[in-house]
Write a structure and sequence with these properties.
11 strands, globular, alpha/beta, 5-stranded parallel beta sheet, Rossmann fold, 48% helix
């Protein structure tokens, strides 16, 4: 069963060799105590029925693949977006290992993040000693300019007070009194990764601006603040920079990890790269306004901007697709007095041309989708613009106001009349929906591949292909560098969607002498 040096194979196709198939069969027979295959297939088929769906949707005490992550994960991503900032998680080491590997697998990059490694004694007596040693060591070893502190479940369950612990660490001389240590409580057992991002960002603003508002005046620096929210498409940061520069707008993109999460392989390791500067954060209250690019996930930030910074936080939708990108750019123009340049009008025209070219293939196609609130809303809006028909739209951690806004948007379109919006549901619910209300395609993150596999197992005619747009994308490379915002993002999304439709059509029409009358060279 050994490998051959001249023909090293991965597990597939290696495990399909006869000797491995025999070994796996023996293991199954000797150790698995499995039910007969007929019983497994019987139960599987039952899980694809309406009867099972009703039972599935009535469960209360169990979540199966929730289609969200926990708060500290979002806090870490937010902290990475600031210049020379080390994310510091007060809690157990295993949690931080999870956050780092989660981002490693998505971005294919090393991710800097430290923990003070609370264990059993800290769980009983509190984690202040861990905090003191951790802050001192993190500063000495990694030489950051900011340490951004968040928490895990352990620290939150026992009630550790970050403000008190950090202040005590400074009083005891473990780090200098003036060293920047913004913080946020991010309990994993409530909210989601988007909540954690919001909490950490509000903590950043609070630390650098709350006690320094006396000399601040709204509009005095002539800038616009852009807050991205939990954003994992690096192209979205870059397209914001490009559009603002083409418009000649003075702006600050508050939290921008696009460099530290996309460093080159040139022989130099960069623990820190790029990011929003402290000066930009301190100057944020002087801006004309602060626009939240993902408003449904930034409630705490919105409240701070309006009540402490006294800016309106003008309402916008996530700038995805044609209409909402139009609205975003027109709002920027209105706030700054800068005209929309010919370059962006040209880009818009190209998008409209693409939509015209492809609408016949997208029209009437059915899509089920899941993901974060703003992304799902923006993607649904774009599908409606293309004449596609969303069937089921799921966001686990969205609220009732979001669902109401979704319902209104869908009812205003002839293509959204039959769409059902689901909140508080997980991917096992979504699996039921894909079987009982079969779409042509799913849109979501990598976890949807197991649902595609299950639909294929039921029979080739039941298979629902997954189009990977969202977070995380673990099983494909380089998609995190793509763009979903602005006209550029719409161009990428349309290219991805329509070519998935055409790829599926080729798959269904390649039967020689049976279906290949529609296996066309030109589509």
């Amino acid at each position: 069963m050994s490998q051959e040096v001249e023909n090293i194979q991965p597990s597939y196709p290696l495990f399909r060799n006869d000797e491995y198939k025999e070994s796996l069969a023996n293991k199954r027979e000797a150790y698995e105590e499995r039910h007969p295959q007929e019983k497994i297939d019987e139960v599987f088929q039952w899980t694809t029925t309406k009867e099972y769906q009703e039972l599935n949707f009535n469960r209360e005490a169990l979540t199966v693949n929730p289609a969200k992550a926990c708060q500290p994960l979002g806090a870490v991503l937010c902290a990475l977006g600031f210049e020379k900032t080390m994310p510091y998680v007060h809690g157990s080491q295993g949690c931080v290992a999870y956050f780092r590997t989660y981002f490693n697998r998505h971005f294919k990059e090393p991710v800097a993040c430290v923990s003070d490694s609370m264990t059993e004694d800290a769980a009983v007596f509190g984690g202040q000693k861990n905090m003191m040693a951790g802050l001192e060591n993190a500063k000495a070893l990694y030489k950051p300019d900011i340490i951004a502190v968040s928490t895990t479940c352990m620290a939150e369950v026992i009630g550790d007070d970050l403000n008190a612990f950090i202040n005590n660490a400074k009083k005891a001389g473990h780090i200098e009194q003036e060293f920047p240590t913004p913080y946020a409580h991010t309990p994993s057992f409530v909210g989601s990764h988007t909540t954690g991002w919001d909490n950490m960002f509000e903590g950043m603003l609070r630390y650098f601006t709350l006690n320094h508002m006396d000399d601040k005046k709204v509009g005095s620096n002539g800038k616009i603040n852009l807050v991205p929210g939990f954003e994992t498409y690096l192209g979205n940061y870059r397209v914001m920079h490009r559009m603002m520069k083409e418009m000649g707008v003075d702006y600050s993109l508050l939290s921008d990890p696009s460099e530290v999460l996309d460093t080159p392989a040139d022989g130099t390791f960069r623990m820190y790269a790029g990011g929003t500067t402290q000066a930009e954060v301190k100057d944020a209250p002087n801006a004309i306004d602060t626009l939240l690019l993902q408003p449904w996930q930034l409630e705490k930030t919105k409240k701070y901007v309006q009540t402490i910074m006294h800016q309106p936080a003008t309402a916008i939708n996530i700038p995805m697709g044609l209409e909402w990108t139009d609205e975003f750019l027109m709002k920027i123009s209105e706030l700054t007095g800068k005209p929309i340049p010919a370059s962006l009008e040209l880009e818009r025209g190209r998008l409209v041309d693409m939509m015209t070219d492809s609408h016949t293939w997208m029209h009437g196609k059915k899509f089920s989708l899941y993901g974060d609130a703003d992304f799902v809303m923006g993607m649904t809006k774009f599908l409606l613009e293309m004449g596609a028909e969303p069937t089921d739209v799921l966001c686990n951690h969205a609220n009732k106001r979001w669902a109401k806004a979704m319902d209104k948007m869908l009812k205003d379109s002839p293509y959204g009349q039959k769409t059902v919006v689901h909140t508080g549901k997980d991917l096992w619910h979504f699996r039921s929906l894909v079987f009982t209300n079969k779409p042509d395609f799913m849109i979501g993150n990598s976890y949807g591949k197991f649902i595609q596999r299950d639909t294929f197992y039921k029979g080739e005619e039941f298979e629902v292909p997954l189009i990977r747009i969202g977070f995380p994308i673990f099983d494909r490379h380089h998609l995190h560098r793509m763009t979903t915002l602005g006209y550029e993002g719409a161009i990428y999304m349309l290219t991805t969607l329509v070519n998935a439709v055409l790829e599926q059509l080729d798959k269904e029409t390649k039967g020689m002498g049976t279906t290949d009358y529609n296996y066309d060279l030109i589509r």
